[in-house]
């Protein structure tokens, strides 16, 4: 592959892994980096510049820049819409004005739903409850509206857009919730939420970059695509995997779920740093169906759920 690709957010977790993957997998690819600040190199630009200059001639835009979900609520709501919605619209408009044919937007399953009763498909009627999810959904909707208007005026255009909705992404270098759970287990503290029986989907960074690479290679239909590993696992299984990786004895406490929820509900009232939202991230069901993207690309993911999780867990050993 010898195309030119513009990637926004290469300084972030996903961006670093994606850039490294492209350089290894597609050595002839020309990468243009778009970040908040440029490094004064030829293939680096910043967000202030794109408002006033013509972007380099590329075949694909990959938009990763975004404000992550903040469970500590330190970000104001308007900040989510400024970064997750407005910057997305700005870049998509630049895409429509360019010669590029592909626009890949990194959205989130949280744009669709905060809670999933059975399994999440792309056909769900979106109902996000947080500013993060709402800002991601609004960006999706604006992309679709702008694209429809563009096609009305350019009916023979070859341009395509792909909205990716990944679930919880993990991998070496990630400092998210999985890292917190690893630290919890490493301290030898008994796990108090074993009475919750759940199934959660995860996404290895290695599977995500593989999917993005295949999307560039292949001409699939525009639309929304969930991205997740193939198998959902329970948090109890995950805790046991962490214990096995670090040779730690795991004590699973089955405290009645009612008492746990009452306790965390009280923490919500007290505006504590942890509460129901953090609890749900560990114990709720959130299964994501990935069949649409795998069928469209006609591929199998290279890394299994457990292989990916073990790699991530092991990477925390020296942290």
Quick recap of the structure?
The protein is α/β, with parallel strands linked by helices and 319 residues long.
Q: How is the biggest beta sheet arranged? A: 7 strands, parallel
Helix content: 40-55%
**N→C terminal distance:** 36 Å
Strand order of the largest sheet: 3-2-1-4-5-6-9
User: Order of helices and strands, N to C?
Assistant: EHEEHEHEHEEHEHEHHHHH
User: Could you tell me the radius of gyration in angstroms?
Assistant: 20 Å
Top CATH class of the domain at 4-170 and 202-229 and 289-303: Alpha Beta
CATH architecture descriptor text of the domain at 4-170 and 202-229 and 289-303: 3-Layer(aba) Sandwich
The CATH homologous superfamily of the domain at 4-170 and 202-229 and 289-303: NAD(P)-binding Rossmann-like Domain
Number of helices: 11
Average predicted local confidence, pLDDT: 91
Q: Write down the CATH topology of the domain at 4-170 and 202-229 and 289-303.
A: Rossmann fold
Instruction: Write down the oligomeric state.
Output: single chain
Query: Number of DSSP strands?
Result: 9
Question: Beta-strand level of the residues, as a percent range?
Answer: 5-15%
Can you tell me the overall shape?
Answer: globular
Task: Find the structural class using helix and strand composition.
Answer: alpha/beta
Uncertain runs: none
């Amino acid at each position: 592959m010898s195309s030119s690709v513009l990637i926004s957010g290469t300084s972030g977790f996903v961006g670093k892994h994606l850039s490294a993957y492209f350089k290894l997998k597609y050595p002839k690819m020309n990468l243009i980096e778009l970040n908040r600040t440029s490094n004064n190199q030829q293939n680096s630009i910043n967000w202030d510049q794109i408002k006033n200059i013509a972007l380099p001639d590329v075949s694909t835009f990959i938009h990763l820049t975004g404000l992550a979900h903040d469970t500590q609520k330190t970000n104001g709501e308007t900040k989510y819409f400024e970064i997750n919605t407005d910057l997305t619209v700005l870049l998509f408009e630049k895409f429509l004005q360019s010669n590029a044919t592909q626009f890949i937007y990194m959205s989130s399953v949280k744009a669709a739903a905060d809670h999933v009763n059975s399994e999440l498909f792309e056909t769900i009627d979106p109902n996000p409850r947080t500013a993060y999810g709402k800002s991601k959904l609004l960006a999706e909707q604006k992309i679709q509206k702008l694209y429809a208007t563009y096609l009305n005026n350019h009916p023979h255009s070859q341009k395509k857009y792909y909205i990716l909705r990944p679930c919880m992404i993990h991998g070496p270098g990630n400092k998210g919730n999985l890292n917190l759970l690893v630290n919890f287990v490493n301290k030898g503290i008994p796990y108090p939420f074993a009475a919750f029986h759940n199934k959660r989907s995860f996404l290895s960074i290695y599977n995500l970059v593989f999917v993005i690479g295949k999307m560039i290679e292949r001409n699939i239909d525009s639309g929304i695509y969930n991205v997740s590993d193939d198998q959902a696992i329970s948090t109890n299984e995950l805790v046991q995997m962490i214990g096995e990786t670090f040779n730690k004895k795991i004590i699973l406490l089955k405290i009645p779920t009612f008492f746990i929820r009452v306790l965390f509900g009280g923490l919500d009232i007290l505006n504590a740093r942890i509460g129901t939202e953090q609890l749900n991230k560990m114990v709720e069901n959130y299964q994501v169906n990935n069949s649409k993207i795998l069928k469209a690309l006609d591929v199998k993911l290279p890394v299994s759920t457990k292989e990916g999780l073990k790699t991530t867990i092991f990477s925390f050993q020296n942290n």
